[in-house]
Amino acid sequence: MGTPRGLRNAGSSSSACRFLAAFAVLLALPTLTAGLTRHYTFNVQMTNVTRLCVTKSIPTVNGQFPGPKLVVREGDRLVVKVHNHMNYNVSFHWHGILQLRNGWADGPSYITQCPIQGGGSYVYDFTVTGQRGTLWWHAHFSWLRVHLYGPLVILPKRGEGFPFPRPYKELPPIMFGEWFNADTEAVINQALQTGAGPNISDAYTFNGLPGPTYNCSSKDTYKVKVQPGRTYLLRLINSALNDELFFGIANHTLTVVEADANYVKPFTAKTLVISPGQTMNLLLTTAPNPGSPAYAMAIAPYTNTQGTFDNTTAVAVLEYAPTRASATGNNNLPLPPLPRYNDTNAVANFSSKFRSLATARYPARVPRAVDRHVLFTVGLGTDPCPSNQTCQGPNGTKFAASINNNSFVRPRVALLEAHYQRRYAGVLMANFPTAPPHPFNYTGTPPNNTFVTHGTRVVPLAFNTSVELVLQGTSIQGAESHPLHMHGFNFFVVGQGFGNYDPVNDPANYNLVDPVERNTVSVPTGGWVAVRFLADNPGVWLMHCHFDVHLSWGLSMAWLVNDGPLPSQKMLPPPSDLPKC
């Protein structure tokens, strides 16, 4: 056996000693270990579930509703093998994961992949890079995410900790959801056929449980136990289908420390508002001498819709471990006072409190110079009723939704695959309007013609383009907020306001120092929000309203970010098991 290569030219005992000394120094340095590979299997199957005394067969992952919690550390590789045992097509989105150069794992059907057909399988394989906190996963086909969702918890790297005092314990994540007694696929299919708004949900849920305010549901109440005088970490996820939600815990003040897996400057609140797609981490400090053995946690909707909505309140229970004070306390469950369903001022006040940490360890890398200025109007509209039917939308039309009056048409093949193969003809058009085609008083009296146009259009961007995007709400078919989610990127929320965006005066009030970094932001009711992002992730990335009814009506678009010149700036090749359309 030959001499080890590193010692062949050592030549003397002194040089050998120098080598051993250097080797000892290397051993003393911190070990830079790569992340672990964590494997999960999703068997997607129909399962009988009973809520509100109604039993129905719903899609589940591994028979669980909600689905399993996935736990990784920053830097880990996550491999999820999905086997579709249903008759429905399905795909899964890892909401908030940046998927650097790896859009093949992003999940939205017909955008980054063809859906997994019944009897088919697909492996989502990606690395969690530079992210830590609370995210989630959900189905991204039709309305299947109403049942197919679960938490995705990213722990900090070992030894890193949090930028706030270490909590006593972590409580199980809480996912807010909606329950429909009806088959949700039938609900949206009927709405798209008739042109009307879809039927509303029958209950809101905490981790799939509606709780005691609903018929037949006292036994289906989510409960979490705490000790007096302790501080807990609580992860919240709004996985509701079509509703922004107020949340509070009676007689408790909450400290917000994270939004969409990005740390924020801590601030306190008694009531939170959280939009579909958004996540928040809270510090919950319990009372040292609680006056009650239990307190209600409650959620109720925030909306300004002109249509019907689920105006109910769901309740879960925060239970204190037995103490002398609680044992003799009030047995009635105190309810938190939540704002009225249309209290836009409460929402604006809460939203204005979010700020990035903007520290050396957690900097706010907001683009200061802007290459592309884009203005998107976001709202509802209409389609004419086909001549051979009667429609139930506004004035006999059909409801629609659009960005810059373009209602997105779902392609028949995956856009990412078409882009990778440079096969665009008949699939997509690179002419999505980056300014409103017909300017009007967006938050005033709507125009007479509210018909939308249709197309599979994208905005092409050169690699590393810095973009300022203003999302302007409209009053067409009523002003309401729209939670816009961007795939493939986080963005910085640099400004927001009511009324029409003023490109001359509003930028002077931007926060370019410590704006909050998110992946989902609500366009204020009757207002606008400005965000900035750097297009440094090549691929095709969906941006859409996270109200699934508006997504179904076409309120979405896609950014096509071209490769950069370096190998590390180019899309990865597709995996061999990528589903076919």
UniProtKB/TrEMBL annotation:
InterPro entries linked to this entry: Cu-oxidase-like_N, Cu-oxidase_2nd, Cu-oxidase_C, Cu-oxidase_fam, Cu_oxidase_CS, Cu_oxidase_Cu_BS, Cupredoxin, CuRO_1_LCC
Please give the SUPFAM superfamilies that the UniProt record associates with this protein: Cupredoxins
Paste the cofactor note: Binds 4 Cu cations per monomer.
Gene Ontology biological process terms, A to Z? lignin catabolic process
Highest taxon of the lineage: Eukaryota
The UniProt entry lists the main location of this chain as secreted
- What function does this protein fulfil? Lignin degradation and detoxification of lignin-derived products.
Describe the family membership recorded for this protein in Swiss-Prot or TrEMBL. Belongs to the multicopper oxidase family.
Supply the name of the protein. Answer: Laccase
- Organism of derivation: Oryza glumipatula
